[in-house]
Specification:
The complex is a heterotrimer of chains A (429), B (538) and C (391). Chain A is of the alpha/beta class. Helices cover 38% and strands 19% of the residues of chain A. In chain A, a hairpin with a 5-residue loop joins strand 11 and strand 12. In chain A, helix 2 packs parallel to helix 11, helix 3 runs parallel beside helix 4 and helix 11 packs across helix 12. In chain B, helix 4 packs antiparallel against helix 5 and helix 19 crosses helix 20. Helix content of chain B is 70%, strand content 6%. Chain C has one domain. Chain C has a two-stranded antiparallel sheet with strand order 1-2. Classes of the chains: A alpha/beta (429), B alpha+beta (538), C mainly alpha (391). At the A-C interface, helix 1, helix 3, helix 4, helix 6 and strand 18 of A face helix 2, helix 3, helix 5 and helix 13 of C.
């Protein structure tokens, strides 16, 4: 009859004892949390990042660890379930006492853990290209902001391919919506007429692309040079590209430039019919640099599989992790406040042969590369920006965000400073 | 550049007539080719033009290999070579002398990169060479490329070729290409009117934009003729668009049919709410992947037939998993249909994770065999081969299954057991085994569906999840326990979806279809083809 | 009168469990707020928010048990009611942010500013008032359930057909809420909440308060549900589950009975969702996913359906397992969880609670078993009936 009460009590006792048991080990290592989905829909992309982090931590330990201590990875599985992300973030910080967390892929997962990091004052490194419009004290964005990916790609197509007509195709969620808003404003500013822009949104995991691809084909046969800017998300890409190939849309006629398709996504495709379609990233596996060759060798050795590809978010973790290590060394402690203050200004080698620096707005500087798909599933870099492009948290092409800036250094310490009213927005109080 | 083209055209005709090349010219050619390797991508366009301008047939392999990404430069002496991959190393061929150098390490070479605009330039440039090719198919392709490129400087070459062209099909294409160029040139009114007639016959979207432009710019009779032609072509296009849409709907319907036909047996006939159905489809897809891997490493020549091997193997593998599932779990749950939901949901979680552990979480590449690649151009339609095959495959699977159920002793026993288990049992039917085989059959068919679906979508551990809900909708809409219902249901939902998509967009279209299903079930609570009789009375 | 009605719900072990939940709802927040972390009985913040979430899940499972366990309606779309309640609460929390959003717009939520919306859509009006939001938490899921049920029950859609169309309903809502044009924040949903009724959400004390509220709601829902199933109406409910046609022939308006329970259950699910959102800090269309609704069914089945207490036990057990496994065996937890579902259906067909009471029932078969027997035996009867239907 009272079995229920004892049950709950037992359950409570069990969890508490487990938690205290795992906390007891905490003393002689520095813990690093890895918050990537290992099951569910996002496992396709995120599992690789977990492996990359384990490799980076392993290598750092071989170099003697950090501050004389070993690093210890704490891996959890938030299972592509956003509320579970919140729970797991809290568990990592509060229970496992990690010093920093590397994780999240989708915007919604980042959004759902933000309040936790703010409340418990910890550090999150977020490695994926995203829509911008955010700058938070506890988060460091090592992926690309829209100005580090989309705009250079469009510039390239205009200049090199003479594109005059644009299809903006994306999955219906916030990253494509924002990127396309920014691009639409940008293209119109460049004199592209309204009727030369076609915008199309599809649901997640869309698999039947017949109608849309044939619409694109029809749109492209109207005489002007046409290109597709694709912000189609992960899973939907394979059927999209298969349909493109089968309907005979060649890159020479209608090139498709994608912002979410990297080596990992191409691994699921026969790329021979797709040669010449483009992607814009800050890193490609085919980049020739010593750091990259070393990284790829280490990756193949770590995964014991020389077919495993590397990709842009992995490089972002590489940069982010090294920045964190350097900041902890500079601060002499893993204390969040000290590390957060130490991070801006830190500069570490990236894999494309240069250096990336953390900026006061918690975004980093990166080169922008444009690559064409090759028949071996890799990209050939056909264009690279002359210098590094600093990530812009608040886009200049959206009216409400153009007036905002972010600077987390001492006097300002604000993620959304309004340059018109000279006030820090709601978040900085 | 147009000037260069004109020059080139003269050269082509000139050079092709003289067979022997003097040695000094060969050296020049070698230098021009080697120059390709210098400088950046941006400078390469001029060099390609220079090569095209030589008019030497030897530049054809050089440029096509450049376009294909197989042209390399030897780091040691900056000489450019044609290459062929031979295992880990390359076999080099000198483009001028034809000298072959085998077994060269890739690391001693640098690839000469090309980009889209370069590839386009090469394709258009080489089409003029191909115009005089002995192979009519190549000439046809060249004529088509010239038509698309719309470069006025190609006109003399076309006319020269037209004069001696024997093949009627190629001639027709050349006429069209010429008409397109004439229309945009400053030719006489009568020439232009003739050109409009030719183009009007051809039809299609590109012609439409050419004629629209002509109608805007032209005057008098030309403008009128162009406008009339535009209206005529638009009318034809609209009809084809409707036909195309029906096809898209049927094609989507056939995918739904394949995905749900196995479920029509395990759920529809047996009453098991089989949440692991999607995972059976996934197992079929992964079997296809494995079969392709094995074939690729043991007998690459058979690759085009890989699907033929995959179909029976997938049937057996998925069927075996289904058999084990039935014997191990489901047979204890008969009569508790809602609990089969829980158990099979658990099984589906485990199967997903098993695949993730064995094959890794990322997408796997399953290639289309050559006979399933590309599209069939039929009048104004472009039907992709993989969809055509899948459509007929789905119908074939349905037909076979139907025959199996209606015309074989095994099918008779299956129907007997599902209709009245006790009676069948007392007549000597071994009901437990019939159950097991029926479930295995449903699972095996799901496996076969996986083979087909791997051709159009992802092969990932999530594959099953993306089909499961649609499959249930189809079976319930069609009427549980009725194969015809599943067929009609799948095709109806497919066509409805595709007709809503242009108006409402992909997302809203799908929502509307779901709402329609909900309302339809109110009207006919047992689906499209309800089983009649007392068996289903409450 | 109402109290008398509710008092009837406190029969047998329900009273004990309700008291236990109420006690937890009081003691846990007190311990969290007033004891030092070193104290042996201190409940850390992490546990408070985790178990707060579990309590809302338990409430959701309880509402499902009311329709499934007692009325035979297997809803595969209960997550939709939960999510709608959550969205209503989320909209209130969103409006509470006011000008503290990143763009500082006093009216428009951030995601609208960011997508260039110029004014608030009409359906967002009123959500700045808590009372209105609270009303909507009940009204929206209730109305949807009422309309849906009115059509479905009148047309006599039953069994798997009903289950599948409830699934279609939640799937359609999932797709709809994913659309950014709907004005509910698309895939990201509603996040970045600041405070509720003036209390900062990031404060441990607010969370402790929410925990208490969740426990209180669960306790109340348990008593109400128990009172309903024990009333005369509850008997009709069971009759409907076990022999719908016969109940109809006897003159009961079966569809009204079903409609009432379905709507009530949806409204309580809405409350669960509304409590869940401030505890978790985000609501997004993922909550509409059919898989989530199936999971609720599984919690109920694992705990033991048709028992009211079972779903609570099931929801907490399964989620506790999930939390623990995802941290301890991140690569293999799905095997464990999947195996658990299979094992429960095979070896504990009546769920944890059913199996437990079987065991204890044997010991004291004549003791307190009377009240539970009333509830549980018809569950077996329904199994038999479904057997007939399936074959």
């Amino acid at each position: 009859m009272s079995s229920k009460i004892t049950k709950i009590a037992a359950a409570l006792a069990l969890t508490t004892s487990l938690i205290s048991a795992s906390a007891a080990f905490a003393e002689d290592t520095i813990k690093v949390g890895i918050l990537h989905s290992l099951s569910g829909t996002m496992a396709i992309s995120e599992t690789t990042l977990k492996d990359a982090m384990l490799m980076l931590i392993d290598e750092q330990n071989k170099k003697g660890g950090l501050l004389g201590k070993k690093l210890e990875a704490v891996v959890v599985d938030p299972a592509s379930d956003w509320p579970l992300f919140t729970e797991k973030a809290r568990e990592l910080i509060d229970v496992n006492k990690v010093s920093a967390v590397f994780g999240c892929w989708t915007s919604v997962s980042r959004k759902s853990v933000l309040p936790v990091f703010e409340e418990l004052n910890s550090i999150l490194f977020y490695p994926v290209q995203y829509e911008g419009e955010e700058s938070q004290r506890n988060v460091f964005y090592t992926g690309a902001a829209p100005n580090q990916q989309a705009i250079p790609a469009v510039d390239y197509l205009m200049a090199e391919e003479g594109v005059e007509r644009w299809v903006l195709a994306g999955t219906d969620y916030v990253y494509p919506r924002t990127t396309n808003k920014i691009l639409e404003a940008y293209l119109k500013a460049k004199g592209v007429a309204e009727e030369d822009i076609m915008i199309n949104y599809t649901p997640f995991g869309h698999s039947d692309w017949q109608t849309i691809v044939s619409d694109i084909k029809a749109f492209g046969e109207a005489g002007k040079k046409t290109a597709v800017v694709s912000t189609i998300n992960g899973d939907a890409n394979v059927p999209f590209y298969k349909e493109l190939a089968n309907q005979g849309i060649k890159a020479e006629d209608i090139p498709v430039v994608a912002f979410s398709v990297g080596e990992e996504e191409l691994a699921g495709l026969d790329t021979a019919p797709l040669v010449g379609h483009l992607a814009a990233w800050n890193y490609f596996q085919s980049v020739e640099s010593d750091a990259n060759a070393e990284f790829i060798d280490a990756w193949h050795a770590f995964t014991k599989n020389d077919k495993r590809v590397t990709n842009d978010p992995m490089e972002a973790h590489y940069i982010g992790f090294n920045m964190w290590v350097k900041a902890v060394e500079a601060a002499g402690t893993t204390d969040s406040d000290a590390v957060i203050d130490a991070l801006p200004g830190i500069s570490v080698p990236n894999l494309t042969g240069g250096y990336s620096a953390m900026m006061p707005n918690h975004h980093i500087t990166k080169p922008v590369l444009i690559g064409e798909i090759q028949d071996n599933g890799q990209f050939d870099v056909v264009y690279e920006t002359a210098g590094l492009v600093p990530g812009d948290a608040w886009s200049d092409y959206l009216p409400d965000s153009a007036k905002l800036i972010s600077d987390w250094r001492a006097p300002l310490s604000c993620g959304n400073f309004n340059t018109e009213t000279k006030e820090c927005g709601g978040k900085g109080n | 550049m147009t000037l260069l083209r004109a020059l080139l055209v003269c050269l082509v005709t000139l050079v092709l007539s003289s067979a022997a090349v003097p040695p000094s010219m060969a050296d020049d050619l070698q230098d021009t080719i080697n120059a390709l390797a210098d400088g950046s991508l941006k400078d390469r366009a001029e060099k390609v033009d220079a090569l095209l301008a030589t008019g030497d047939p030897k530049v054809v392999p050089v440029l096509s290999q450049l376009a294909d990404g197989n042209l390399y430069v030897r780091k040691a002496d900056n000489r450019v070579f044609l290459t062929e991959s031979a295992g880990k190393n390359f076999t080099l061929t000198d483009p001028v002398s034809g000298e072959v150098i085998p077994d060269i390490n890739k690391r001693t070479l640098d690839k000469i990169k090309a980009n889209n605009s370069l590839r386009r330039q090469i394709r258009d440039g080489l089409s003029l060479f191909a115009l005089n090719s002995p192979d009519p198919a190549k000439r046809l392709e060249a004529a088509e490329t010239i038509f698309k490129a719309q470069d006025a400087s190609a006109l003399p070459a076309i006319e020269a070729r037209l004069a001696k062209e024997q093949d009627p099909e190629v001639s027709a294409f050349l006429e069209e290409a010429r008409a397109g160029l004439v229309l945009s040139s400053d030719a006489s009114e009568s020439d232009k009117l003739a050109a409009i007639d030719v183009l009007r016959e051809k039809g299609g979207r590109q012609v439409l934009s050419m004629l629209t432009a002509a109608a805007e710019k032209g005057e008098g009779a030309v403008r009128d003729a162009a406008e009339r032609a535009v209206v005529a072509i638009e009318r034809v296009l609209a009809i084809w668009e409707g036909v195309q849409n029906i096809w898209y709907g049927l094609s989507l319907g056939s995918v739904l049919l394949l995905a749900s036909i196995g479920l029509a047996i395990t759920f529809g006939v047996m009453g098991v709410i089989n949440m692991a159905h999607g995972e059976m489809v996934m197992i079929g897809a992964y079997t296809t992947f494995t079969v392709q891997q094995v074939i690729q490493s043991t007998a690459p020549g058979l690759f085009d037939y890989s699907l033929l091997f995959a179909i029976p193997i997938a049937f057996l593998v998925a069927g075996a998993v289904g058999f084990v599932l039935e014997r191990g779990i489901i047979r204890f749950l008969y009569g508790r249909p809602l609990e089969t939901l829980l158990a099979t949901w658990g099984v589906s979680l485990m199967l997903q994770q098993a695949v993730r552990t064995i094959f890794g979480p990322t997408n796997k590449e399953v290639s289309n065999p050559s006979w399933m690649s590309g599209a069939l151009d039929l009048a104004g339609l472009s039907l992709t081969w993989n969809r055509i095959w899948i459509f007929f495959f789905a119908l074939a699977v349905f037909g076979l299954l139907f025959l199996l159920l209606k015309r074989t002793p095994m099918g008779l026993q299956m129907r007997a057991v599902t209709q009245n288990r006790n009676m069948a049992s007392s007549l000597g039917v071994r009901t437990p085994w019939v159950d097991a085989f029926t479930f295995a059959l449903g699972s095996g068919i799901a496996g076969i569906a996986g083979v087909a679906l791997s051709q159009i979508g992802n092969v990932s551990p999530n594959l099953g999840q993306s089909y499961i809900i649609d499959s249930f909708m189809v079976v319930v809409f069609g009427g549980v326990g009725n194969l015809w219902g599943t067929l009609i249901g799948a095709l109806t939902l497919g066509v409805a979806n595709k007709f809503l998509e242009p108006f409402a967009g992909a997302v809203l279209g799908k929502i509307l279809v779901l709402v329609f299903i909900i309302l339809f079930i109110q009207k006919r609570p047992r689906g499209l083809f309800a089983l009649k009789g007392r068996a289903v009375e409450q | 009168m109402i109290s008398a009605f509710l008092f009837r719900g406190l029969a047998g072990r329900i009273a004990w469990v309700a008291a236990a939940i109420a006690l937890i709802g009081i003691l846990v927040p007190l311990s969290n707020l007033f004891l030092t972390p070193e104290h042996a009985l201190y409940v850390p913040d992490y546990i408070v928010s985790l178990f707060g979430k579990y309590l809302t899940y338990a409430l959701l499972a309880l509402t499902l048990d009311l329709v499934w366990g007692y009325c035979g309606i297997l809803s595969l779309g209960h997550g939709a009611f939960f999510a709608l309640g959550g969205y209503a609460m989320g909209m209130y929390l969103m409006r509470q942010i006011g000008s503290r959003g990143v763009y500082g717009d006093p009216i428009l939520p951030d995601f609208m500013v960011f997508l260039n919306w110029k004014e608030l859509p009409w359906y967002w009006y009123g959500f700045d008032q808590f009372w209105f939001a609270a009303l909507m938490v009940l009204a929206v899921p209730g109305l949807l359930a009422f309309v849906f049920g009115w059509f479905a029950f009148r047309s006599r859609v039953t069994g798997v057909y009903l289950s599948i169309i409830t699934q279609a309903m939640t799937y359609a809502l999932l797709l709809a809420f994913f659309r950014n044009d709907m004005g509910f924040g698309g895939n990201n949903g509603l996040t970045d909440f600041k405070d509720i009724l003036g209390y900062t959400l990031q404060e441990p004390s607010t969370r402790a308060g929410l925990f208490a509220a969740a426990a209180f709601a669960l306790c109340l829902a348990l008593i109400i549900s128990s009172a309903i199933v024990r009333s005369k109406f509850g008997k009709v409910l069971l009759a409907t589950r076990d022999a719908e046609s016969r109940a109809r022939f006897l003159g009961y308006r079966v569809e009204h009975v079903k409609l009432f329970v379905f709507t009530l259950s949806a409204m309580m699910a809405g409350i669960a969702g509304a409590l869940y959102v401030p505890l978790v800090g985000i609501i997004n269309p993922g909550e509409f996913a059919p898989a989530n609704s199936i999971e609720v069914v599984i919690w109920t089945a694992v705990g033991g359906r048709g028992t009211l207490i079972g779903p609570i036990v099931g929801a907490i057990t399964v989620n506790l397992g999930k939390s623990w496994f995802t941290a301890q065996f991140p690569e293999y937890w799905l095997f464990v969880l999947g195996g658990l579902f299979v094992a429960v259906t095979l070896f504990m067909p009546r769920g944890i609670l059913g199996t437990l009471s079987d065991a204890t029932g044997k010991l004291k078969s004549l003791g307190s078993g009377k009240a539970t027997a009333l509830v549980q035996d018809p569950a077996d009867a329904s199994e038999l009936r479904k057997e007939g239907e399936a074959s």
